[in-house]
Specification:
Layout (H helix, E strand, L loop, with lengths): L6 E8 L6 H10 L4 E7 L5 E5 L9 H17 L11 E5 L11 H13 L8 E4 L2 H16 L5 E9 L3 H9 L16 E9 L12 E10 L13 H14 L8 E4 L5 H14 L9 E3 L2 H4 L6 H15 L6 E7 L4 E9 L29
Parallel strand pairs: 4-5, 4-6, 9-10, 9-11
Antiparallel strand pairs: 1-7, 1-8, 2-3, 6-7, 8-12, 11-12
């Protein structure tokens, strides 16, 4: 049995460059940066730099993350075409071993968001504590729920913050942060991103700005950052190859890439190795690489929904380099995810019901990635 691709029909964003999708995406399009001096200082006395959301009231711990996530989900639900009580929330969060991670995050986050929105928590809602990979597992589960008829629409989201003194000091000691005299590192950030994933037949065909997710492939990198093992970019190459195969396209049919590369040389080298191995044909122009972290700081678990929202916006407004994009993200533990997306042109686009099978390097049962 074959199904139309799950589609992205709306987004909700709370980032250092905007408190809504409209403002965030306009800022990314224009190249506006939200990087600033943070309220956290290095042992030398210098302020760390990164992306900070300007909240009218700033909480801490899980309440901070709920305050970021609630407006993003609310914005998404405003575009729903089915009752919002029937739309589960699947949310990526930081990995359980992250320094400074709230102990009650996966237990308390979604109930607090529901309380802030004054709605019951929809059945089937869950968190996936796997950094950037959490939203990939959430998207995989959302597509399965839609294909199996268990839901027509699902919110896939991510929320994260690196703005914790203990975490920043640890990252700095491991030479992971960008700063004075250091060109190999990333800028920390915080934010929330959500997309409304829908069955194709739940969206009117005359509705514009709909993004079709043609494939999703997951893999595992055997030499993740900091492992000290010989690094050849095998995990990302496997994930990208799997996504291209599922979408039945080749790399030369990809018009641009969107990634979570962050300023660390590791990520850029990994993206380069994957492209060199798979993009064998001559191009009239270079394959663009879009990476929002230079404007927002690293948003961790929120990166994949942010990329999906940006791809949808670029295609809808006509500033994308072409009709088809390759998205890829990864986590420090080695998980890699790659997707092929394009503007929806027909509700009859082929989509295999088992098209989200894991690719070359097994990452395990995705159902186990969700917190109980």
């Amino acid at each position: 049995m074959r199904h139309p691709p799950p589609c992205i029909m709306a987004s909700g964003l709370v980032t250092p460059v905007g408190f809504r999708s409209e403002t965030t995406l306009a800022a990314l399009h224009a190249g506006v940066s939200g990087i600033q001096a943070l309220g956290f200082r290095h042992i030398s006395g210098q302020a760390y730099r990164g992306g900070r959301v300007d909240l009218s009231q700033r909480w801490s711990g899980t309440s901070l993350l709920a305050g970021l996530l609630a407006p993003a989900i609310h914005e998404c639900l405003g575009a729903a075409t089915v009752p919002v009580a029937e739309i589960p929330w699947l949310v990526g969060t930081s990995a359980t071993d992250r320094i400074g991670r709230p102990a009650d995050l996966d237990r308390a986050l979604l109930p607090e968001v529901a309380h802030r929105l004054n709605v019951p928590l929809p059945p089937g809602s869950a968190t996936a504590p796997r950094d950037a990979m959490g939203a990939a597992f959430a998207l995989q589960r959302a597509a399965a729920l839609i294909a199996e008829g268990q839901a027509q629409q699902v919110v896939v989201a991510g929320v994260d913050s690196f703005l914790d003194q203990r975490l920043l000091d640890d990252l700095d000691q491991r030479l992971r942060l960008l700063g004075p005299g250091r060109l190999n590192g990333f800028l920390p950030g915080e934010g929330a991103a959500a997309v409304l994933v829908s069955a194709a037949d739940a969206i009117p065909m005359n509705r514009s700005g709909v993004l079709a997710v043609r494939s999703l492939s997951l893999a595992q990198e055997p030499a993740p950052v900091g492992s000290g093992r010989p690094f050849r970019g095998e995990g990302l190459t496997a994930a990208v190859a799997g996504a291209l195969e599922q979408a039945q396209v080749s790399m030369d049919q990809i018009d641009w890439r969107m990634t979570d590369v962050s300023g660390e040389h590791y990520g850029f080298k990994e993206a380069m190795l994957a492209a060199l191995r798979l993009d064998r044909r001559d191009r009239d122009q270079a394959l663009d690489l879009w990476h929002p972290i230079e404007y927002t700081g690293h948003l961790g678990a929120a990166m994949l929904p942010l990329l999906l929202a940006w791809a949808r916006h670029a295609l809808a407004l006509g500033y994308a380099p072409g009709p088809r994009a390759l998205l890829h993200v990864g986590e420090d533990a080695g998980g890699r995810a790659a997707l092929v997306v394009e503007a929806r042109t027909s509700g009859r686009t082929p989509w295999a019901s088992d098209g989200l099978a894991l690719s070359l390097l097994d990452v395990g049962d995705s159902n186990k990635e969700f917190a109980a």
